[in-house]
Amino acid sequence: MDDMDRRLLSALRDCATDQRVAAAARALSWVGEHGALWLAVGLVGAAADRERRGAWLRGTALTAGAHLASMGVKRVVRRPRPGVADGVVPLVRTAGRHSFPSSHAASAAAATVAYGALRPVGARVVPPVAAAMCVSRMVVGVHYPSDVAAGAALGALTARLGVRWIKGGAEQ
Questions:
Q1: Least confident of 17-21, 24-28, 76-80, 92-96
Q2: CB atoms near residue 39 (< 10 Å)
């Protein structure tokens, strides 16, 4: 698994030789820090969709919860981020030194499930942005593929477990 993780990371990191790809990956990494993009989407949804305000706020809470859960797992697992020993020079700074699971992927996947449950447009627009954010973490060289997969699974599961709660206050 380690060998495959390193090879996939290397291949994705090589995509950053195209400056446009590198710039897009940096931007996605920046807006995804601490789940900021996804929390903002939820708050905008709550402000714009008065009928479902409570549901949007619950979805936002689940997205934040997935992010916090991933941070807790990081403190237990303590897997170091990729580095020079792996032949990877990161393109961005990170808030912490541990990589498993990816908190960006956790909040992105949670937002995909939570906001997709609220509006059809959420089910069409959020997933491609979330997927790009997940891939960006490898392109900028700060996560192994297994970090991203675990983060996405954690986020999706967290939100999926809360979908009934999200919809509880929404007209169905």
A1: 92-96
A2: 17
